[in-house]
Specification:
Elements lengths: L1 H15 L25 E10 L5 E11 L5 E5 L3 H8 L21 E8 L5 E2 L7 E5 L2 E3 L20 H12 L19 E7 L4 E4 L5 E3 L6 E3 L5 E7 L2 E6 L14 E4 L2 E4 L5 E5 L3 E8 L14 E9 L9 E4 L5 E6 L2 E6 L7 E5 H4 L3 E5 L5 E6 L2 E6 L5 E3 L1 E3 L6 E4 L19 H4 L2 E3 L6 E7 L3 E7 L3 E7 L14 E8 L2 E7 L4 E6 L3 E3 L11 H6 L2 E3 L8 E9 L15 E4 L21
Parallel strand pairs: 28-29
Antiparallel strand pairs: 1-2, 1-4, 2-3, 4-5, 4-6, 6-7, 8-9, 8-38, 9-10, 11-12, 12-13, 13-14, 15-16, 16-17, 17-18, 19-20, 20-21, 21-22, 23-24, 24-25, 25-26, 27-28, 30-31, 31-32, 32-33, 34-35, 34-39, 35-36, 36-37
Length: about 600
């Protein structure tokens, strides 16, 4: 016992004395051997359905359980997404935990896998090595798939047959025969990012990939940047603390060494390079310095941050300060007691007042366009689009992705008759080739980014209709004068909020006090028992502490390479009848199909 304790202490001391330059030796990954099978919570035979760009997260389709039990589809997440972005883009020290360790998941491969539970309601395939076993030449191998092309240099066959491996797994599971997965009537594909929601009592909850619900620790509400690499905490009512994600998740390893700045609230820029922090009297913008001197950036203990801009705020007691970043993170806008402000941080030395409190007459800041040129304020029933380059204001207009075209919704700017009679498009296209969309008798209009190059619109009167349409003038009007559109949700009653994830083409819809739906389902579906069985939704009455106040998409489980360069395509939340955000997503769909 004493000898083991000394060895463990020496190992820990060595670990914390390591510098980032040691990371290359981590590539000599240990192997998970068959004698370690009992260490895992689950032992399964499965086919890999879906893999992220790292090869460290996957969705697997289980055929048999040799130890433990569970559903057909499981989500495996070996390393936090932020370790990839922090390590690759920002040069943060992530120790050995991100260094390419272990086997890479390969879509389509079938093998035997060991899995352990994680604190984040997913599974890990790693315990002293990755627990992957494949059949090659009638023997068990550590190859990623059963073909020589994917073999790693240190892979070797273990002297054991498939029959003997199955016997060892059954022995580790304490059973004589494998069991089948828990079969649901409808096979739900796992979510690829967490869905967060807040109740009216202020409690925070998380919807996990398998749609189970976890309460978020009320004592440690974290703010996480879109690329998952920067983390912030409210230290107290006057201080925000920052650190970067480190091997052991989001909990700071050295709480007292966090970088602390004055403020009560914050919002990361969409590209995660900056953060806006504010309190009742001041707005400050900080730029993250990716690399710093000495040991300060080792082991996740703090952030190097430069104060690049600040501005005074006039607080209104009955209205919290509203902050918006443009999608490309070049401009920021806010609303306070004096009105609505806009600041292009790359082009302007100071902020400009777009509209005074007297001018806007109770309107509120809605959003900034993709490049920050256009600012929108008003309400869902009617709004103003302000062009910061020309000073022009357009009623009920939207800016297209890239800010090149204008979209007029229920606008009298140019009456539309038969499409044969519309004026021919000619330069300048913004003035002579705009897009016009009619929404009949809708009292409120909200928009959200939808799939690739499409705009989602929600038109509500007594009930809501949801449709998708192109923002581009090349899509002609039909003979009724309407822009071409297709319905994606008819007669949605009691619709309160839409959180759409354009990365994975996944809507989350809040309807009523307790129901969250993962699709655009007509209200009549809930009156048909057969259709009801196939709907993907959660009804949380009696499960959460009070009615749901708001929903939003949280951190990703899957890593995709476009997260390295830009995050303007991350989800936007739409509040029906309230603030709505810009249609600025141009993400190629990354749907990976269900097993057949």
């Amino acid at each position: 016992m004493k000898t083991g304790l000394i060895a463990l202490t020496s190992c820990v001391l060595m670990l914390f004395s390591l510098s980032p330059t040691w990371a290359h030796t981590c590539r000599e990954a240990p192997r998970f051997r068959t004698e370690d099978l009992h260490e895992m919570d689950l032992l399964v035979r499965a086919t890999v359905m879906d893999v992220d760009d790292r090869g460290y997260s996957a969705v697997i389709h289980v055929a048999e359980y040799y130890k433990g039990e569970g559903p057909t589809l499981l989500t495996v997440s070996r390393y936090n997404v932020g370790l990839e972005t922090g390590h690759t883009v920002r040069g943060y020290d992530t120790g050995c935990l991100f260094s390419g360790r272990g086997h890479i998941w390969r879509a389509g491969a079938t093998g035997y896998f060991g899995l352990s539970h994680t604190p984040f309601e997913t599974y890990s395939d790693y315990d002293g090595g990755s627990a992957h076993f494949y059949i090659w030449d009638e023997m068990i191998t550590y190859r990623d798939v059963a073909t020589e092309d994917f073999a790693q240099v240190w892979d070797a066959k273990e002297d054991i047959s498939e029959e003997d491996l199955v016997a060892k797994m059954l022995k580790a599971g304490g059973r004589e025969a494998p069991i089948a997965p828990t079969i649901d009537k409808v096979l739900r594909y796992p979510l690829r990012r967490y869905l967060m929601f807040t109740t009216e009592n202020g409690r925070r909850y998380q919807v996990n990939p398998d749609r189970s619900i976890s309460a978020v620790d009320a004592e440690t509400v974290r703010f996480i940047s879109p690329d998952d690499a920067h983390v912030a905490l409210r230290v107290d009512n006057q201080t925000i603390g920052f650190y970067y994600v480190w091997p052991f998740g989001y909990s700071p390893q050295h709480y007292e060494q966090m970088t602390k700045v004055p403020g009560r609230d914050l919002r990361f820029s969409n590209d995660s390079h900056m953060v806006a922090v504010w309190d009742e009297s001041q707005l400050a913008v900080y730029l993250f310095r990716n690399k710093g001197p000495g040991d300060f950036l080792q082991w996740g203990v703090g952030m190097q941050m430069d104060l690049i801009a600040n501005a005074p705020l006039q607080t209104v007691d009955w209205r919290p300060t509203t902050i918006q970043w443009s999608a490309d993170s070049s401009a920021i806008a806010w609303q306070d007691g004096s009105g609505i402000w806009r600041w292009d941080l790359y082009e302007e030395a100071e902020a400009s007042l777009v509209a005074s409190e007297n001018d806007i007459k109770g309107s509120r800041l809605l959003d900034l366009s993709a490049s920050g040129r256009f600012l929108r304020y008003g309400a869902a029933g009617g709004w103003t689009l302000f062009d910061s380059h020309t000073g022009q204001a357009h009623e009920n207009a939207l800016a297209s992705p890239g800010d090149r075209h204008l979209i007029f919704v229920n606008s009298a700017a140019k009456p539309i008759n038969d499409w044969h009679e519309t004026e021919q498009c000619k330069p300048p296209l913004r003035e002579n080739c705009a897009v016009y969309i009619e929404t009949d008798d809708a009292k409120t209009i909200t928009v959200f980014p939808y799939q690739m190059e499409l705009l989602g619109l929600v038109a509500c009167d007594r009930e809501c209709l949801v449709w998708a349409t192109s923002w581009h003038p090349a899509i002609r009007h039909d003979k009724t004068g309407r822009h071409d559109r297709r319905y994606i949700g008819d007669t949605l009653s009691n619709l309160r909020q839409i959180a759409y994830d354009p990365i994975y083409d996944q809507p989350a819809i809040l309807r009523g006090d307790y129901r969250i739906e993962f699709g655009f389902f007509d209200s009549s579906y809930y009156e048909d028992e057969e259709k009801l069985q196939n709907l993907d939704y959660l009804h949380l009455e009696g499960i959460v502490d009070s009615p749901i106040a708001s929903i939003e998409w949280g951190q990703p489980i899957f890593y995709d390479t476009f997260m390295l360069t830009a995050t303007e395509h991350l989800p936007r939340t739409v509040t029906i009848g309230g603030a709505d955000l810009q249609p600025n997503s141009k993400i190629p769909p990354t749907f990976r199909g269900m097993p057949t």
